[in-house]
Design brief:
Blueprint: H1 2-14, H2 19-31, H3 40-52, H4 61-71
């Protein structure tokens, strides 16, 4: 799980430069974990990244995919 948190942090740090890439990295980090581990700190960090994405990007494929992975 530590590796996943590091990957999530790396995705979040990319957010400033490339929203799509940040979302894709976050999805990769989350889907590498069993669903039972996508809770607590892992989920909070994913939600924080998603909430930092400007609303106009929420309709883009990568952001929708992130939202779906967090919901699942």
């Amino acid at each position: 799980m530590t590796r996943t948190l590091l990957n999530i942090d790396a995705a979040a740090s990319q957010h400033d430069g490339d929203t799509e890439q940040a979302c894709r990295r976050m999805v990769d980090a989350l889907t590498a974990l069993p669903a039972d581990y996508r809770t607590g700190l892992v989920r909070r960090r994913a939600v924080t990244l998603y909430e930092a994405i400007p609303a106009q990007h929420h309709r883009e494929h990568a952001a929708r995919e992130l939202r779906d992975v967090m919901a699942g």
